[in-house]
Amino acid sequence: MSSVPLKNILKLVDPKQTTEIRRSAIVVLGELGQREGDTSEAIHECLRDTDQGIRLASIVAIGQLKIDAALPELLEKIKHGGLESELAADAVAKLGVKGRKALQDLMGKVAPGLRKYIASSLAASGADRADADALKILQDKDPAVVEAALGSMMGSIPNLGASQRKALADQLIELVSNKKQPIATSMEAAALKLLAVFDDPRIGKILWERVQPGRNPDIRMAALQSIGKFTTSPNKEQLAILFGCACEPDFRMAAPALMMLKNVKVTDKSLNDWLVLFKAVDSATRQFAMDKLEGFDTPELAGALLPLIRSSDRKFAEAATRKLTELESGRKLLSEALLEAETPDQYWQYARMLVPIAKQYPARWRDTVFKKLTKYIEENDRRADSLVFLMGETDAGDLRERLETFAVELRKKKAYERAYPFLRTLARDPACGMSARFELATVGLKLSAKDFSEDSRAKDTCLHSFSTLLQHQQNDEEIFQQLEKVKWLEPEDLYYLGFHFADHEARHKKFASLVLKLVVKRSPKSKLGQNAKAKLKTSGLQ
């Protein structure tokens, strides 16, 4: 450009022009990069203008034109903070060695909040020149300074030429790889973030080394956040490292590992390696594993899911439960877990889970469950309640039939004490039939202590059972006819029954009379027979 047009542009900087025209002219002069004539002086003069827009434009132009004479005033502006301070720091950094040295000297003299402006400018300038000194800023103890410098350098790297990029990458690699002179953790973390901007194949190995367990957490995190760019298909060793990171309690560590694992295909061969994710502290990692392994159905997968149904995260526990019940291996495992559980609470948990799917099990499964149920009933073990619930919810009729058949077989063997708990369990079901309730009443009568005191008889459950039976029949003779067929009841059992109803059940006098007469019939000459006659007489039942 000739000097005539330049002079014409300089005229537009004159204070007589409007602020907008002056600011535009300053911008154009800075972009032209020519300092002929009075350009430098005119722009320098604008640095003192009363309009901030003019001052800001002049600061930028001073840096572009490298007007050294403005250095003292620029340094002064840096001390005052604000946008002018930030732009002034950038302009000084562009003034060459003298400007950069001035910034370095100023770093220790300004307020902490202003140091980040200086650091950012020095770092950007250093990146442009692949200057090793600029990397020293990353060692600053102030996190804000390091962050500003790091951001500035990362923004400058894409604009560097190939040779400059390689030179800076070499310096960074040498910096983090120098075992004789190890750098501070904060600087190494910053350097790793910078390396991630490059496309250098050497960087992947450096990052993987720093993700290894045992390394400083900040270093591991910095490396992990960048490693995905350099590894698209992790090998077995690298996958193991990622699994470990994904299980870390700090989700800042787990998240980038999960992002990488998201793109890794699970195979039948590698499936078991993925199961370690179910041991993660964070439920998000466990949920990721569940989603990732969708479509697989193995005993190992079911075994890894089983402990998760007791997770404190209720939503996740429900998801694990649904998943288990969907898997064939899961349903099998739940059945096994039910029968091997140690506490009533565990039994209840498994029983509730199995109710919706129990009908899918083969018939022999109910045989196995009932066998366990009979054991618990005989041992008066509270785990029996959950099995009664499970079998009742899935086929109540079958359970009633099994319990009654089992109890009657025991009673026929005169194992009355063993039979009674099964009849009592059966009677809890409102749908229990009269035949089973009659069995309960008669077996209970056989086992009764037969204490004739009024208080004892009021508490005797067998007497209550007979009372209930009588209330549900149209007449007392129906119950008596069944009772008459029970040959295994002794006269003393019948006398106790008849004696009670003769005293306290006026509405069932007929039943009492029939029972006492049966005692007389079966044992006419015995003392019981005589007592029965006397009771009939005193009660007016003859």
TrEMBL record:
Species per Swiss-Prot/TrEMBL record: Telmatocola sphagniphila
Protein name: HEAT repeat domain-containing protein
Superkingdom of the organism of origin: Bacteria
